[in-house]
Design goal:
The protein is 36% helix and 20% strand. By secondary structure, the protein is an alpha/beta fold. A hairpin with a 2-residue loop joins strand 8 (136-139) and strand 9 (142-143).
């Protein structure tokens, strides 16, 4: 059984994406690693995301294909587990994994379940065109998610924006806000097309989400690929203290209970 991991990235050094660390991780797990999106335009419409993901799937030459955002990692201890679950579900179209969302390296939230592993050998007609973002996996128009494909408790470690500065985040969020407006005709929850509007909307969302980051981490808990970079975070990077949220956030007891229950299920 062969495995491809594909990812998308555009100007990763300018955007301060952990692409070297991520590619090192993917190369340990997969027989083939493919990158797409290198020519992503500055201004685009939101459906371009799914089109780019589809390009990655179509270029993959393995039995199983895993789509990873460039800030997503697997832990090295799960290399054999991944292979086992792919073999276990060789007759299923896809597999769902939980996501550890990390804003600061000392804590996380088990935020969502992500359908990112696709059985291309048995289901080559999978399309990445579904859901509100037009990039979720579908077969014959049916979205593949946690309700209809196997769920496995192998976490995706997500380091969204952790290495980015406010300037980079503001510019990026504004681009994606304009892309959303171009596709859907409104700003949704993305604030607006200027950098200040987009950043403020993002930070409001992050402030709410960080309250739910109740599970603790030590530096040694992180995947080996990313640990050194995390230890070198500087004050201008979001992951250093989440732009002040690390010291100002208060959390509800109910959030601790909920996440602890989710942790016990892993």
């Amino acid at each position: 059984m062969k495995l491809t991991i594909f990812t998308s990235m555009t100007n990763p050094e300018d955007r301060m994406d952990p692409y070297k660390e991520a590619l090192s991780c993917y190369e340990d797990f997969a027989d083939e690693v493919i990158t797409v999106g290198q020519d992503w335009p500055e201004e685009f419409s939101f459906e371009y995301i799914g089109t780019t993901f589809q390009e990655g799937f179509d270029k993959s030459n393995s039995d199983w294909v895993i789509r990873m955002d460039i800030d997503n990692f697997f832990h090295e201890r799960d290399i054999l587990k991944i292979r086992k679950v792919l073999q276990k579900h060789k007759d299923k179209p896809a597999i769902v994994f939980p996501k550890f969302q990390i804003f600061t390296p000392d804590r996380y939230d088990i935020k969502a379940k992500m359908c990112i592993a696709y059985n291309k050998k048995q289901f080559p007609n999978i399309k990445l065109n579904g859901g509100g973002d037009l990039c979720l996996p579908t077969i014959n128009g049916m979205i593949l998610d946690q309700s209809n494909v196997p769920n496995e408790n192998i976490p995706i470690w997500n380091y969204d924006s952790i290495f980015k500065t406010k300037t980079i985040i503001s510019k990026d969020r504004a681009r994606f806000a304009r892309a959303w407006k171009s596709c859907f005709g409104d700003w949704g929850d993305r604030g607006g097309g200027t950098e200040n509007e987009a950043f403020d909307a993002w930070f409001e969302m992050i402030t709410d989400r960080y309250k739910k980051h109740t599970l603790k981490l030590n530096l040694s808990d992180h995947p080996k690929y990313i640990a050194k970079s995390i230890a070198s975070l500087t004050k201008d990077q979001f992951g250093y203290n989440a732009f002040g949220l690390k010291d100002s956030t208060t959390r509800k007891f109910s959030d601790y209970v909920k996440n602890y229950k989710n942790y016990l299920l892993l």
